[in-house]
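hey so i finally got around to running the thing on that chain from the lab meeting. sorry it took forever, my laptop kept dying and i had to restart like 3 times. anyway pasting the input first so we r on the same page abt which one it is
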Amino acid sequence: MQRAERALAIAPRTENNSGCDIYKTRIQFESVKAVQQAGVDVELVERQPIVESIVGNGEIVYDPTRQAKLASRVPGSVWRVFKNVGDKVAEGELLAIVDAAEVGDLKTALLRSLAEEKLQNQNVSRLTEARNAIAGSRILDAEAALAKARADVLSAEQSLLNLGLPVDVSRLRGMSEQQVLDELRLLGIPPSIREQVSSLNASANLLPIASPTAGVVIERAVTPGEVVDPSRMLFQVGDTRQMWLQLSVPLENMDQLALGQRIRFTPDGSRQVVEGVLDWINTSADQDTRMLEVRAVLANNDGRLRNETFGMGQIILREESDAIVIPTGSSHWEGCCQVVFVRDKNYFDSLDSYKVFHVRSVRLGAVNGDVTEVISGVLPGEVIASAGSDVLKAQLLKNNLGAGCDCVAE
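ok and heres what got predicted. didnt touch it at all, straight out
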């Protein structure tokens, strides 16, 4: 009864007419040989696991929330490339270096602004010490010049930070002019390759392109010497430890969907079954196909899942470990009821007796390939007609012809 309640709660099931008395009907053969000549075979009603699901075509894709497409933030030419497709990268790891004149101009502007700030700061200190011997307007002018120099430093600092260059002005203020120049020339270049860059007498125009996330280089679209600009993608880096599964399911199943349902996906040409959890249901159906798109998140720690992999997915609605099943195709709709033909329990008691099949009304549940769940009507161990059962249906309809069936399907 509990299994029946679960099955009826999941989806509407075809109902039999409660006023139909077709179950009182029997079909009999003269002998076992006559049954065999009619092509009728039998099978046991059994117990098997049943899975009821919504099936849809799907595709595995990269999780776009874990992807990064990288470009140079200013025009320039590619100076060095350090990573290739398939290479694993850590967060902040260097992918390439671009030689951009604008970067050099900004570094020069910062260097000049720091020098001017230092000069104006010294000027204000000198005038303040001699304030009793000079006009107050000179001190005000000097303080205004200092404020302007600090604003220029701030502007140059912010411009470099906007390019992703980690400049620390407070640290630079404590250095000599040559030390500041050396620091700015290799700004943003990791210590592990600074010696290599220094040995090549690189310019101060260098802009490092670093990965903002840990992952794998999915795409590389650049080689050394190429001219690039902000509109051109250089690298695509992604964290492939998590993928998305996008499924298209029939719109009529929308009321059966719920977040948190388990999904099983079988890629085309593979026996591997991947499991995930439904975490998004589209609020709009496709206007052309009238299908509804849903999504699941798949773990991919072993890296076996591939982008743009097609296959078949199942959204699990119900699983029964011990359902009652019959062979698919052994039941028939006779006008107002779904029926099977149950072999009489005394079928083999006498060789001379008629061989009887009883008509039994059944209510069906989920179909799993070659077996169909029975919600009610038969019990495990009973024997029903399977192959050739359409012969029995034809005989049933023939018997009712003329007499008619006074029941109407509900």
